[in-house]
Amino acid sequence: QVQLVESGGGLVQPGGSLRLSCAVSGFTVDYIGIGWFRQAPGKEREGVSCIKSSDGRTTYADSVKGRFTISRDNAKNTMYLQMNSLKPEDTAVYYCAADYPLVFGQCKLSGTEYDYWGQGTQVTVSS
Fold first, then answer.
1. Residue 62: how many CB atoms within 10 A of its CB?
2. N or C, where is the chain less crowded by C-beta within 10 Å?
């Protein structure tokens, strides 16, 4: 069965850092796109970043460029989101999702492109 399991969320002060992990099982990550999305109460779901597993090409939302870094370890079937310089507006439930198959083109930050979703992990940025 396909599973995506997020971990690494928690409470952090503004300016702090967190690293989220997304462990993927049920298929290899060689030909998928993995995206991170977030949703805050009362707000629409927002695409944060994505990575194409086959070549490592990445995409970032403007709101996180220069602060967040997405990466993957295909051997471990795990994708990471390193979040630095966190702001209160980054507070949200963060979800990882898989777009499968993804062989050609770049990954997208539209949630409609993704077929499998994790359960989410809460990130709270507050003093």
1. 6
2. N
